[in-house]
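Fresh eyes needed here. Have a critical look at this protein's tokenised backbone.
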Amino acid sequence: MMYRLIPLFLLALFSHSAAAMGPWKGECHEEVPCQLGDRSYHIKLPDDWDGTSALPVVMHFHGWQRTGALPVRHQRISGATRRRGVLLVAPTGLRKTWDFWRAGSADVDFARAVLEDVKSRFPVSDDQVYVSGYSWGSNMAWRFVCEDGADVAALLAISGTLDQDEVCDTAPREVRQVYGLNDPVLEYPYGPRGEQDYAVALWREKFGCGAGTATGPWQQVPFLTLERTVWTSCETGRVSLDVHPGGHFIPHGWIARQLDELLDLPHSYP
């Protein structure tokens, strides 16, 4: 279904129908997807939510040949969100993949419809909406914020980017990228002269950033060390790039660490 062609009145009908049910009634949850037209998404509520407080949201795009059912069970994703008062939202791609290759993807419109549907079901903290993704899903997360990210607080991208010469109409307020230097699946995007910081060149240019600052190594677990570079002297926005010597995976505790920093929480693991 081409969500770009959904009439506005139909999207309004989705929202009205859900809102008419009042507060969340449990009609969809971790194992049971929330239906949206002929597509769906999964959710994972945070621990100890009181049922009324506004929720920060992470919308996470799954990897290739997965579905939204995986992130809501994944310790390194939902294990981080549920302990930090964050609602996890995981859309499912058509044929278990995403169309991120070029501008105008119907998946951008679908993801926006998902966010609007979530807001009709739950009280959402509008200035704490984060977009994340892993692998193919990270590429999709980049595509989404590139085309419809004006209200996104931060992009949390794991092992995937877009071409750095893309032209983005919008941008999130902040970008946080992590990548393995020995990734055998989506090879690390070094620059034309071997620049290691090229993986976030698009956002550094769009934000008008100056020189980056290496902040040194950090760990969430003793068996994985990450090196971080940050760009804070920007006209708008902020960029950070974490690299590690490993391959194609979600680093243990990486999402947790980003949320601790974004939500001004003490660092913890998991």
About this structure: Residues 1-23 have pLDDT under 50 and may be disordered. The CA atoms of residues 49 and 85 lie 7 Å apart. The longest strand covers residues 124-134. The first helix runs from residue 8 to 20.
